[in-house]
């Protein structure tokens, strides 16, 4: 058994499917099935059992999963350090982006980064900010964009956006002509929210409860344009960040400032504190910090080999 076999096993466990794992790894399903069967024969255990159309880890499989994660991560760290030692300006980055920020901030950033570092490849994963944060913590992603604050014991971060949420209503809505709206005035309104794997989902519900009511959620989506479209169809109201509101056709919805309280929306780049940072990851952090700016701390900040921040 070699490290590749462990990588195959981990991908099957994460995907819950031999077919999906094979697709993600760009290999055939018989190859990955044979690898898992050989592992089971070698160790004399069953690693997976079928649950309907999905497969799940057995008790032995869960033990293998925990140990395989550590071994693959250690192997990758050795590979990264040796590559950096050879000073090859190349590498691969796995970056997580919430869908609502990808198109607004990053196409140009990625293009400029690619021109500066053409040998660094980037793989993007679009998920809600909570999923991105969890995947950076587990090591499935190198870097992610998340809604701040995050756990400072786990992550390094820098902020590049500080905004507020605006209210979106149909042009015929009773509040459409107002200059601003108190959050408590929305107590009887139907809400259109992002799904539960988005940080804004929990934050909006929490702010509403603090304002004295629990919001009545009628629709949930992972796409901001679908949310604004539902508001335009007079199916409910929504709260979206200022940057997203600039992309919305103001003839179809009325966009109003929210007050008493305002709901902040702060985006940041995050990465694990205790994990080795590859050349590619260090360059991405330094490059994007310089390009996007940093909203919470002035001055020039550098990233050392471990991803730690030093001020000059």
From TrEMBL:
Residues 1-58 form the HTH lysR-type domain. Keywords: DNA-binding, Transcription, Transcription regulation. One of its GO terms (cellular component) is cytosol. CDD domains: PBP2_CidR. InterPro entries: HTH-type_LysR_regulators, LysR_HTH_N, LysR_subst-bd, WH-like_DNA-bd_sf, WH_DNA-bd_sf. GO terms for molecular function: DNA binding; DNA-binding transcription factor activity. Transmembrane segments: none annotated. Belongs to the LysR transcriptional regulatory family. PANTHER family: HTH-TYPE TRANSCRIPTIONAL REGULATOR YBHD, NITROGEN ASSIMILATION TRANSCRIPTIONAL ACTIVATOR-RELATED. This is LysR family transcriptional regulator. The lineage of its organism: Bacteria, Bacillati, Bacillota, Bacilli, Bacillales.
């Amino acid at each position: 058994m070699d490290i590749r076999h462990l990588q195959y096993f981990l991908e099957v466990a994460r995907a819950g499917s031999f077919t999906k794992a094979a697709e993600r790894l760009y290999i055939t399903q018989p190859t990955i099935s044979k690898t898992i069967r050989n592992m089971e024969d070698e160790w004399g255990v069953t690693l997976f059992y079928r649950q309907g159309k999905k497969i799940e880890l057995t008790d032995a499989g869960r033990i293998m999963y925990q140990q395989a994660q550590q071994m693959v991560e250690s192997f990758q760290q050795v590979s990264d350090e040796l590559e950096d030692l050879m000073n090859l300006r190349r590498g691969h980055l796995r970056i997580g982006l919430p869908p609502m920020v990808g198109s607004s901030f990053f196409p140009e950033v990625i293009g400029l980064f690619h021109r500066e570092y053409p040998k660094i490849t980037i793989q993007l994963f679009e998920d809600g900010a909570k999923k991105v944060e969890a995947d950076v913590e587990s090591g499935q992603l190198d870097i992610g964009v998340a809604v701040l604050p995050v756990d400072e014991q786990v992550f390094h971060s820098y902020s590049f956006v500080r905004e507020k949420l605006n209210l979106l209503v149909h042009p015929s809505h009773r509040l459409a002509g107002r200059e601003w709206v108190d959050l408590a005035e929305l107590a009887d309104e139907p809400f259109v929210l992002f799904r539960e794997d988005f940080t804004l989902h929990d934050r909006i519900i929490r702010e509403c409860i603090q304002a004295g009511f629990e919001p009545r959620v009628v629709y949930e989506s992972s796409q901001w344009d679908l949310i604004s479209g539902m508001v335009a169809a007079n199916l409910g109201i929504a709260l979206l960040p200022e940057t997203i509101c600039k992309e919305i056709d103001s003839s179809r919805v009325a966009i109003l400032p929210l007050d008493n309280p305002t709901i902040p929306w702060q985006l940041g780049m995050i990465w694990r504190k205790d994990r080795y940072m590859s050349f590619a990851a260090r360059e991405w952090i330094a490059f994007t910090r310089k390009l996007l700016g940093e909203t919470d701390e002035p001055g020039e900040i550098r990233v050392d080999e471990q991803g730690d921040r030093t001020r000059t």
